[in-house]
Amino acid sequence: MDKDYFIDYYQVLQCDRTATTHELKKNYQRLLLSTHPDKMDIKNSKNMFLLVQKAWSVLKDSETRKQYDAMFSCHENSELLLYDTITLSDMSLNSAEGIYTYKCRCGGTYALSKDCVEAEIIIGCDECSFSIQVNK
Ligand SMILES: [Zn+2]
Description:
alpha+beta
């Protein structure tokens, strides 16, 4: 995925990141109908239609969704509560998925895609509002 063209697929499907697959699917189906090229101004609707399909193709599968979520964390730059500063070697690497993970004290997980590793990066927990800073 190209960083410069990072697209919030949750926003495309008008869901938030905690949405279940069922909720995503419901919105996907609704949006497919409302953005269908037959129903809208052709130019806009074609892009939207493709985008909705792309978003669903990534988020419907729990594996690709997990990878997407890990990527997503790199692109968030909201005000964060910093919980800890660690180094990459403190994290465990799932080499099959290319994702580093670190357990949060809330029981949630910090996930970092290998493709996103930079000198230092801040990632958020998938359960609570804490974040950690990871130094390479
Ligand atoms: Zn947490």
